[in-house]
Amino acid sequence: MRHFGSLLLGLAVGVPSCLACGGCYGPTSHVEHVRHVKRIQPGAPNATYGPTRALEWGQVNFLHTTDTHGWLEGHLKEGNYGADWGDVVSFTNHLKQQAGNMGVDLLLVDTGDLHDGNGLSDATTPDAELSMKVFERLNYDLLTIGNHELYLAEVAYQTFDGIAKLWGDKYLTSNVQILNPSTNKFEYIGKQYKFFTTQHGLRVMAFGILFDFTAAGCIRRLKVAGNTNVTIVTKAKEMVTQGWFKQALNSTEPVDMFLLLGHNAVRSSMGGTFGIIHDAIRQAHPRTPIQVFGGHTHIRDFAVLDESSTALESGRYCETLGWVSMSGFSKSNSAWTGISPNPRGVPNPTRKATANSTSPFVYSRRYLDWNRATLEFHAVGKQDDKEFDYNSGLTTTAEITKHRSQLNLAEVYGCTPKDYCMTCAPFDSPDNIFPLLSQALAEVVINETRKDIPRYLISNTGGIRFDMHKGPFTYDDFFIVSPFRDALLYIPEVPCSKAATLLDKLNKAGASQKRNIGSMRVERDICVDPIVAPLMARDEPGHGHAFGAVTRRQVVDLVPGYTTSDDFGSDGDDTTHSRIPNYSIPDYFQGAAGFGAEGCTGTADVVFVDFIEKDVLAILGSDYSSSNVTYYISSNYTTQDFLPQFVKQSDMFQAGLPNCTIA
Ligand SMILES: *[C@@H]1O[C@H](CO)[C@@H](O)[C@H](O)[C@H]1NC(C)=O
Ligand SMILES: *[C@@H]1O[C@H](CO)[C@@H](O)[C@H](O)[C@H]1NC(C)=O
Ligand SMILES: *[C@@H]1O[C@H](CO)[C@@H](O)[C@H](O)[C@H]1NC(C)=O
Ligand SMILES: *[C@@H]1O[C@H](CO)[C@@H](O)[C@H](O)[C@H]1NC(C)=O
Ligand SMILES: *[C@@H]1O[C@H](CO)[C@@H](O)[C@H](O)[C@H]1NC(C)=O
Ligand SMILES: *[C@@H]1O[C@H](CO)[C@@H](O)[C@H](O)[C@H]1NC(C)=O
Ligand SMILES: *[C@@H]1O[C@H](CO)[C@@H](O)[C@H](O)[C@H]1NC(C)=O
Ligand SMILES: *[C@@H]1O[C@H](CO)[C@@H](O)[C@H](O)[C@H]1NC(C)=O
Ligand SMILES: *[C@@H]1O[C@H](CO)[C@@H](O)[C@H](O)[C@H]1NC(C)=O
Ligand SMILES: [Zn+2]
Ligand SMILES: [Zn+2]
């Protein structure tokens, strides 16, 4: 799938890489040997301010990552999220040490979706060949699988043979199986569950439950409907009736805590299935705490399921490190051997899950921004850069730098003159990415033999995954902004009466399907990860004061970022941000080219992404069938190809190259 490499690396000849940059962005060549890079990726920004409150440490504490999608290099253009995987490796080492000193447990958990989103994971064949090695540097206690591990057979097998084998019984896939080619039988990719005792005596039973991600529930995307047919995803409703699950719950071994990991929304209202598992456990264990860690919807969220059960979701793309702590274990309700009631010298969790709770358990939750300033703040006593870094962290950072260089990810193709976001500005605003992408479609998607025929080019907003930030536009950004490879089809010379109204009709159809929970809704929210509001820092200060009146310290000039509200209220974000506006966007956008001032008069070619062929034909009516549809350029020219081509030839993106800086 990397064939555009030849197309675009060829085009790069003569483009100077990051000349004279103040905050020079990424390595150009062999930079790791000549620069004394000690932490974070070269040129990655740090946060300008950070947290003000220490973490609340309980008896059992959790650090949670989810939906990392290959972003192990950190966000090279955003100060809020500039730390890399090596920094987090060092951080978790510190926290494990702190936990040991305090006599408490700390568990590291991940809930899946390890690639599709960043060049570090997606520029290799197969995906994640190098990034997986980096990911494995973090010493997780438990992990589970995401839907992005299951679209393609080769990726599913890579997961089965790689990560599942490496982590052994820590990799939990309670409802996901794969056809083992050597036995020709379906087998669980990881383990169905794990029963273990923590360092301080708690007897834990853990499961890993993927949401109901099945081919039948999804329309065409990524060329496959849902999970690859070499895998089976058992729906939660069915899973709880299976013998192995009932037996696990009916075990005579006492259980002090259930842990549910899942690539799965923490709320049923958002398609999550934890509620089903929770209810099944409650039938057998009415009071035992159930701690839940979710993912997939790419948001920060914390839900109270009952007085002894809470659920955390920790965002996406290495922007958030989630923290949950709890206390309330004693000799009378568990085999706890650690400190009671709480570790000393640090804040402790104080909140009951519900107002009228009679359960002994209290909780805290916090969403940490993924940057050096935050990690150093919480690595108590290690605020100095030198004291903070562990050798294992530095090695990991160096490894990422090396891979980025190997993969040419820092190769610069143009200079993005300003920020363009997906939903922080109105759809037709010059700050929105879609007018720019419409222009790109119009200017570069051309079939030479039909270049004089006017054309509409329709693509889907769901295929765009990330904002474009001011600064060098690199090879990495191809994967970050538009990672999907959907081919472009066309129907020649459609009368203007139909061609000019097609976009509008598609969007209306999408909207009505949403109301009916039709295919469009399913595609965007379930089968592919959802679009959420842009959570990136933008350059302008703005908005800060209006939303800064939080109960905490007054911060002047807040940086835009997460402003989370969850079942515990609005104090979960570890660093205070100003709110980023969130405008709704339609399902489709289009470029238009070759029309005169009077617009569409006779006929126009209608070009569109392949997976909406059926919808397009339905709207055009009975005169049209699939026999009227062919590739506009070729079967291998896709939605991943037009933006890089545009950046390369656009004056707007070339003009700033000699002095291209971030922020
Ligand atoms: C697409 O395939 C054709 C041959 O089928 C090849 O000549 C061309 O280089 C490919 N295009 C890209 C972008 O790789
Ligand atoms: C999956 O689908 C392919 C193509 O339709 C088919 O050849 C293959 O036998 C199927 N595999 C399984 C395990 O069903
Ligand atoms: C649970 O275990 C008991 C005895 O250990 C047995 O009688 C009962 O049938 C089991 N229930 C289930 C649902 O397996
Ligand atoms: C607590 O309050 C909720 C709703 O207000 C109620 O449904 C629940 O039964 C109460 N629980 C207890 C233990 O009183
Ligand atoms: C990041 O910011 C923190 C707090 O401002 C500072 O102590 C630290 O030295 C910075 N680290 C790097 C690597 O820039
Ligand atoms: C943004 O708005 C959309 C609807 O327009 C909504 O579904 C989504 O939850 C909002 N996101 C945030 C983070 O507020
Ligand atoms: C669609 O294709 C069929 C068969 O190739 C052709 O007869 C028909 O005229 C085409 N329809 C339109 C509207 O061009
Ligand atoms: C362009 O369109 C012509 C005619 O429809 C087709 O034969 C050709 O394959 C298309 N692609 C290119 C790159 O010319
Ligand atoms: C590069 O841009 C920065 C900020 O716009 C400016 O301060 C600096 O003077 C410029 N440097 C050069 C060499 O043009
Ligand atoms: Zn995801
Ligand atoms: Zn997902």
TrEMBL record:
<dbReference type="Pfam" id="PF21953">
    <property type="entry name" value="NadN_nucleosid_C"/>
</dbReference>
<feature type="domain" description="Putative 5'-nucleotidase C-terminal">
    <location>
        <begin position="419"/>
        <end position="617"/>
    </location>
</feature>
<keyword id="KW-0732">Signal</keyword>
<dbReference type="InterPro" id="IPR006179">
    <property type="entry name" value="5_nucleotidase/apyrase"/>
</dbReference>
<dbReference type="InterPro" id="IPR036907">
    <property type="entry name" value="5'-Nucleotdase_C_sf"/>
</dbReference>
<feature type="signal peptide">
    <location>
        <begin position="1"/>
        <end position="20"/>
    </location>
</feature>
<dbReference type="InterPro" id="IPR053828">
    <property type="entry name" value="Nucleosidase_C"/>
</dbReference>
<dbReference type="InterPro" id="IPR041823">
    <property type="entry name" value="YHR202W_N"/>
</dbReference>
<protein>
    <recommendedName>
        <fullName>Putative 5'-nucleotidase C-terminal domain-containing protein</fullName>
    </recommendedName>
</protein>
<dbReference type="InterPro" id="IPR014485">
    <property type="entry name" value="Pesterase_C1039"/>
</dbReference>
<dbReference type="InterPro" id="IPR029052">
    <property type="entry name" value="Metallo-depent_PP-like"/>
</dbReference>
